[in-house]
Design a protein that fits this description.
Blueprint: H1 2-17, E1 38-40, E2 57-60, E3 70-71, E4 89-93, H2 103-108, E5 120-124, E6 126-128, H3 130-220, H4 225-249, H5 252-271, E7 312-313, E8 317-323, E9 338-342, H6 346-349, E10 358-360, E11 371-373, E12 380-385, E13 389-390, E14 404-405, E15 418-419, E16 422-429, E17 437-439, E18 453-457, H7 462-473
Parallel strand pairs: 1-11
Antiparallel strand pairs: 2-8, 3-4, 4-5, 5-18, 6-7, 6-17, 8-16, 9-18, 10-12, 12-16, 13-14, 13-15
Length: 478
């Protein structure tokens, strides 16, 4: 049976080695994280700093993966599978860890740790993401342009309001001047009307007197004269009527003037230049981002094909600290105990098992489940606390969680469990200022920072583990 398992494993491994790697996607094809997944660490209020611990501690010094031991396997959660994690892990400690590792293979392997600690410590890598910085710049430019447009619209509206007010003021002034002029004209008319009213009775009296004299003269003249005068007046009226009729029949001169004006208007209209028509401007194509350079495309297994792109960043420091329990003494971990912390699928599973803790150096009194934006000169911090209350029997469980659980808020272990040394991984990274990095993750998790997690497989010798327990229970720092 064992030989068959080994044969199957060999087929899987061989198949993975010849498995074609899909084409590297463009930066724009990678989904996540979003800019909203980042937060300025100075805006995070101080709060919980993780699992409480006792005074004693032991640090296993295993380096920071300068030898670049990496793969996309996980022999605890997905044993016997190549690329079972679909994201790349950094490894320190045991030099042979991969998807096919067993207790026996790890015990036979070498290590990067002091004191012969052959345990396997691993976590997802951090990658630089220049596309996020470009996205931030584009968003800032868009916000700046929007702000400028809003300011221009406000200025145009203000100018329009000012022009309307100016026109209203001019209209009011014209109305006021017109009313004043009408008042002056009425005053002059009243002044002129007053002497005319005084002169009118005198003129009427004089006319009456003249009319009386004329009547007397007419009565003294020959009465036959009246028919002749009437006839002469009729002849004069007929001649005047004939002259008016001739003028009505000869309108040609006036029409000719009008025709000349029409011709002049037509000529002028033909000679007027038409407004020039400018050709419509064609929209320019947006500049395409350059393709990723070799070494930045994540072409390894668990890389770009699974949505993980960018240059992998080696941690600036790695601290592997085993700590005591504040409520009781600790007992030794059994050899080959397997532990996980966090949930690599917390983005879709929810936060029940999430344990992501992000911060910055100089701000480790405040932690967040978002990516921290650190001030210049400050390093990104990942703090990964492991469970430490063992059921006393099992080195693993079906969900890799129930055999070792977390202590309560006061640090005490639940009934029926025993406190073992509590492992805390603290990783620091130097990255460019701003949203410039992301943790490797399963494709559907969108590089959500809450998915941060880590794994530990204890391969310490019993002698070394007993030394760790004594150091912790004595309150020493080793």
């Amino acid at each position: 049976m064992r030989k068959r398992s080994i044969a199957v494993a060999g087929v899987l491994l061989a198949g993975s080695l010849v498995m074609p790697i899909s084409a590297t996607p463009a930066l724009s094809a990678v989904v996540g994280p979003s800019l909203s997944d980042f937060v300025d660490i100075r805006r995070v209020p101080p709060g919980s700093t993780g699992v409480r611990a006792g005074r004693g501690s032991f640090v296993s010094q295993c380096g920071r993966n300068q030898n670049r031991h990496r793969n996309s396997d996980n022999h605890i959660v997905a044993p016997g599978v190549t690329n079972g994690a679909h994201h790349v892990h950094d490894y320190v400690g045991n030099r042979t860890t991969n998807g096919f590792s067993t207790d026996q293979s790890l015990a036979a392997g070498g290590t990067t740790c002091r004191f012969g600690d052959k345990s396997a410590y691993f976590w997802p890598v951090i990658r630089l993401r220049p596309d996020l910085l470009q996205e931030q710049r584009d968003q800032q430019n868009q916000n700046r342009n929007q702000q400028n447009n809003n300011q221009q619209q406000n200025q145009d509206q203000q100018n329009q309001n000012n022009q309307q007010q100016q026109n209203q003021d001019q209209q009011n002034q014209q109305n006021q001047d017109q009313q004043q002029q009408q008042g002056q004209d009425q005053g002059q008319q009243q002044q002129q009307q007053q002497p005319q009213d005084q002169q009118q009775p005198q003129d009427q009296q004089q006319q009456n007197l003249n009319q009386d004299q004329q009547n007397q003269q007419n009565q003294q003249q020959d009465p036959q004269q009246n028919p002749q005068d009437q006839q002469g007046q009729q002849q004069n009226q007929q001649a005047l009527s004939a002259q008016n009729a001739n003028q009505r029949r000869s309108p040609g001169n006036n029409n000719q003037g009008n025709n000349n004006q029409g011709n002049n208007q037509g000529n002028n209209q033909g000679n007027n230049p038409q407004p020039s028509q400018t050709p419509s401007q064609q929209p320019t194509e947006p500049a395409q981002p350059p393709p990723p350079r070799p070494g930045e495309d994540g072409s390894e297994l668990g890389g770009a094909a699974d949505g993980n792109i960018g240059t992998i960043v080696t941690p600036r420091s790695v601290t592997l600290q085993f700590r005591g329990n504040p409520a009781s003494r600790v007992v030794a971990m059994p050899r080959f105990l397997r532990l996980i912390t966090g949930d690599a699928k917390a983005g879709t599973n929810g936060g029940a098992n999430a344990r992501a803790q992000w911060s910055c150096t100089g701000f480790t009194n405040r932690f967040t489940t978002q990516y921290p934006l650190c001030p210049r000169g400050s390093l990104v911090v990942r703090q990964l606390d492991f469970p430490s209350c063992w059921d006393g029997q099992n080195t693993d469980s079906a969900n890799h969680r129930t055999h070792v659980v977390f202590p309560g808020q006061n640090g005490a272990c639940p009934a029926g469990t025993r406190a073992v040394p509590q492992l805390r991984m603290t990783l620091t990274y130097s990255v460019p200022t701003g949203p410039s990095f992301a943790v490797d993750a399963f494709p559907e998790q969108l590089h959500n920072p809450v998915t941060d997690h880590a794994d530990f497989h204890n391969v310490m010798s019993n002698q070394l583990m007993n030394f760790v327990v004594q150091c912790i229970n004595r309150g020493q720092r080793c």
